[in-house]
Structure prediction request, 435 residues.
Amino acid sequence: MQKIYLLSLGCPKNLVDSEILSALLGQAGFALVASPEEADTLVITTCAFIQPAVEESIEAILELAQLKNKGKRLIVAGCLVERYKEKLPPLLPEVDAWIGFRALPYLPEWLKKDCLPKLALKGPGWKDEDYSLRIPSHPFSAYVKIAEGCSNYCRFCTIPFIRGSLKSRPIKEIVREVERLAEMGIKEVVLVAQETTAYGIDIYGRPALAELLEILDKTGVPWLRLLYTHPKRIFPLISAFKRCQHLTPYLDVPIQHVDDEVLRSMGRGMGEKELREVIWSFKQELPQVRLRTTVMVGFPNETEAAFKKLKDFLAEVAFDHLGVFKYYAEEGTAAYNLGNPIPDEIKEERYQELMEQQFQIVREKHTRYLGQTEPVFIERVEEGYKGVGRTAWQAPEIDGEVYIIEGKAKIGEIVPVKILDSYDYDLIGKINKSS
Prediction:
C-alpha cells in the first residue's frame, strides 16, 4: 500500500480541498500518513493569495524536496500552480507534478496508474459526491464551501485569475453535505467562499445566501457560522439573523478601507457614506451580533489623511475582531500598475497603530464580559486547563479562545462558561454548573 503525506497550506477553502482529496486517496487504496519521512509520495496543496503566502508555499516545497533523495515523489497542487504555472516548473525540477485545483479529482487515478503529468490544470473540479466523502479535520467543527471563485474583481485581489469567476454550488448539494455532517456529530458548520454574500448570483440570478441559511437552520447543526461577507450585500442577512435559531451572533465583513479615494482605487463598489450606513444599520438592527472586519494599509493612494480616517472609523465602530493586512503589489492585478509608492516602514507603522488601537478596544470589551455566562464550544484539551474552546462570537483559528480553569467538559460539547478574567485576546472562565 502506497503511503501519502498531505500538507495543506492557506485558507479554510483550501483545507476543504485537502479534506476531499484525502477522502478520494483513501477510497483509492492509499494510506495517509502523518509524517513526510514515512511517505512514498508527498503532496502539498498551496496558497498564493499574497506574497507571504507564496513565500510560505515555496519554502514548504523546498523543505519537502530535501526528502527526494530517498526515492519519494513530490506533487504540488492548488493556487500556487494556477498562479505561476509558466514560471515555477522550470525553476523547481525537484517537483514531479504540478496539479491545478480543477484537476485534483484525477490525482488518485494518476497515482494508481503511475502516470503523473508534469502539469495538469484542466478538470471537472469537485462533484457533489466528492464533497459527500470528506471527513473534516476536526471531529466536531467543519468548513463547508458554498462557492468557488469570485466575480468582484477588486483591483488588489488575485483570486479571480487564480480561482476564476463565481461558481456557486446548488442549494440542494450544500444541504445534503450539512445534513451528513450533522449525522456525523458535527456541532459547528462554518460557511466559506471567496465572498459568501455573492452566493447564488451565477445560478439563481440573485444573491441566495439568506435563503440558504434559513434552510440550513433546519438541519440540526447547533452552530452555523458565516465568513467572508461583502458589506454591499449584507442587508439581506438582517432578516436571516432574526429568523435563524442556529446562526451564531457573529459576522465577518471585510471593509478593506473607509476613505472614498482609496475605496474607489481598490474597486470596492461602495464609498464611505454607503459603508457607514450599512455597518451602522446592521449594528442597530442586530446589536447582539459581534462584527469582525479586515482592512488594508499602505494601498498606493493611501495618504496620511486617508489612514487617519480609517483609524478614526475603526475607533468609532469598535469592531469586536479586526484583521489588518499590509498592501502587497501583486503581479497580475489591476492595482499592480499603480506601483508600490508607500515604503514598507510606513506600512508597518500604520499596521502597528491599528493593532494597538484594536488591542485597547478588545481589552475594554473584555471587561464587559466579566461575570457573564456564555455558551462555549470545547475544541481541545490543553495541559493546565480543563478545556479550551470558543464562544459563539469567536470563529476558529482567527479569533481569541476561552481557557477553562474549573469544571469538566468533553471535546465537542457546548457548555455554559462564566467569564472570570481575560488575557490579551483570550478569555478565562469556569464551567457554570448552575446554568
